[in-house]
Amino acid sequence: MADEFSRQLSICLFIVVLINAPRVRSEFATLTYLDSAVSKGAVCLNGGPPGYYLLEGSGSGVNNWMIYLEGGAWCPKPSECLERSKGWLGDVYSRPQRAYFEGMLDNNKTYNPDFYNWNKVNVVYCDGSSFLGDVEEVDPQTNVTYRGSRVFDAVVDDLLAKGLNNAENVILSGSSAGALATILHCDTFSDRLPNVKRVKCLADSGFFLHA
């Protein structure tokens, strides 16, 4: 009985160690600052440049793209947007210059066998309104700018120049506020990729119900 208990305990300990063992990561994504977008009015809440993390594809995935729009809810009040503009949800310079991807953006074949070697992009969410704002005037009370739609367009422009225009497969995805942006931008995004064989949009949560 004691030997059987010891065996079961050893198995449990092994499982715990396996679950908590650090994952081996071989690559990280780097943050691209779109300074050139500022002159086009494509800016974050704080008036600074937008940005995205990119991990380039390889092998059979070199011509495929997974573009992920970050979530992070909305800032419905000017005071809340002002607070956002001072941190990582409104200021790209508050973000780390390097980041590791997980989920559908993971570069580990074991954890992400379908998309591990695709070009993977994580678009920084910094406008507070699901990449939808297009207000020309800067808020005179808070000095906050609402230009999320222009941010989205600027990111797409930059990715087109990096090979997105000639891709074979493209998936636009997002969660929470990014999922709503995926739904609302899907058609116009697809229209900008006439040479791409397949364009799909995946909203991973983010449905806003009027009830």
UniProtKB/TrEMBL annotation:
GO cellular component labels: plant-type cell wall
Principal EC category: hydrolase
Residues making up the signal peptide according to the UniProt record: 1-26
Entry's Gene Ontology BP terms: cell wall organization
EC numbers for this chain: 3.1.1.-
Keywords associated with the record: Cell wall, Cell wall biogenesis/degradation, Hydrolase, Secreted, Signal
Annotated InterPro entries: PAE/NOTUM
Stretches of the chain forming a coiled coil according to its record: none
Domain of life from the UniProt record: Eukaryota
Compartment(s) where it occurs, according to its Swiss-Prot or TrEMBL record: Secreted, Cell wall
Keyword Ion transport: no
Pfam families: PAE (PF03283)
GO MF annotation, one: pectin acetylesterase activity
Family per similarity comment: Belongs to the pectinacetylesterase family.
Role played: Hydrolyzes acetyl esters in homogalacturonan regions of pectin. In type I primary cell wall, galacturonic acid residues of pectin can be acetylated at the O-2 and O-3 positions. Decreasing the degree of acetylation of pectin gels in vitro alters their physical properties.
PANTHER family, sorted: NOTUM-RELATED (PTHR21562), PECTIN ACETYLESTERASE (PTHR21562:SF65)
Protein's UniProt name: Pectin acetylesterase
